[in-house]
Amino acid sequence: MALTATGPDDRVEQLIILTERLTDLIARQATAFEARRPHEAAQYVDEVAKLANLYRHESTRVRASVALVAGAEPSRRLRLVRATEAFDAVLARQGRAVTAAKTVTEGLVRAIAQEVAEQRPTASGYGPGSQGAAYRQNGTAITLNQRA
After folding, report:
1. Residue 88: CATH number of its domain
2. CA distance 54 to 34
3. Most buried pick, 12, 56, 92, 131, via CB within 10 A?
4. Residue 53: how many CB atoms within 10 A of its CB?
5. Reduced to 3 states, what is the DSSP secondary structure of residue 91?
């Protein structure tokens, strides 16, 4: 997918709209992560992925051929610069929020695993019948949700 612009002004305007929409969606995701509600961020994943791919593609095209936007009105180009700066700030915010959520999640998983390990009885004694006998008496299992 690519933008179908009729000229530099149109291309810059479309890039502004794209950047602002992507910024808004990522800000919503960051807010959800900061509120410790990552499941709410999931609703934006598909659209963010699609728009991020389009953004990457278009920014690569503009970098390769600056003439695509060079003829646009200076005020429009300035709006694009401001939209890009806001986008960069939101990306940094989301990065911090995702890192914090990841750290908390990993800590929870470690704590659960440690608790399970501590509750398992230790096998004692020597000989063929003693090793593992304690595990058969008190079975413990842990199930991890692959989607979480």
Report:
1. 1.20.58
2. 26
3. 12
4. 11
5. helix
> 103 Cβ partners below 8 Å, 6+ apart?
none
For 26, the domain range is 8-120
pLDDT of 17-53, one tens digit each? 999 999 999 999 999 988 888 889 899 999 999 999 9
**Alpha helix positions (H), the chain:** 8-34, 38-41, 45-64, 67-70, 74-119, 133-137
Domain contains 127: no
Residue 55, domain member (yes or no): yes
- Dig out the tokens for 46 from the structure: 């598909």
| pTM given for the model | 0.71
Number of domains in the chain: 1
83: nearest Cα among 26, 146, 140: 26
Domain membership flag for residue 61: yes
Residue 94 falls within a domain, yes or no? yes
Rg (CA), the chain: 26
